[in-house]
TrEMBL record:
<keyword id="KW-0472">Membrane</keyword>
<protein>
    <submittedName>
        <fullName>Uncharacterized protein</fullName>
    </submittedName>
</protein>
<keyword id="KW-0812">Transmembrane</keyword>
<feature type="transmembrane region" description="Helical">
    <location>
        <begin position="20"/>
        <end position="45"/>
    </location>
</feature>
<keyword id="KW-1133">Transmembrane helix</keyword>
Length: 67
C-alpha cells in the first residue's frame, strides 16, 4: 500500500483521474500480494524435505545402496 500511496502525488500532477488512481492502486497492491504469495510458495517448495514428504516422488521406492 505504501508503494501505491508514494506514487499518488506524481499521478495527481499528471492529471490522472482519481478513479483511475484508485483502480491502479488496487491493481498494484493486488499484483504485489500475488507476487509475494508465489515467492513464498516457491521458497517453501525448494526447502529440502518440504516439497514431498514421502521422498523425491511419492510412491516411488528409492534403491537401497549396499556397502
Amino acid at each position: 500500500m505504501v508503494w501505491a500511496i508514494r506514487h499518488w502525488p506524481a499521478l495527481l500532477q499528471a492529471h490522472c483521474a482519481t478513479s483511475w488512481i484508485a483502480w491502479w492502486s488496487l491493481a498494484t497492491v493486488a499484483a504485489r500480494v500475488i507476487m509475494a504469495a508465489v515467492a513464498v510458495v516457491i521458497a517453501v517448495a525448494r526447502e529440502p524435505g518440504r516439497a514431498c514428504p514421502d521422498g523425491p516422488a511419492a510412491g516411488v521406492r528409492t534403491p537401497q545402496v549396499r556397502e
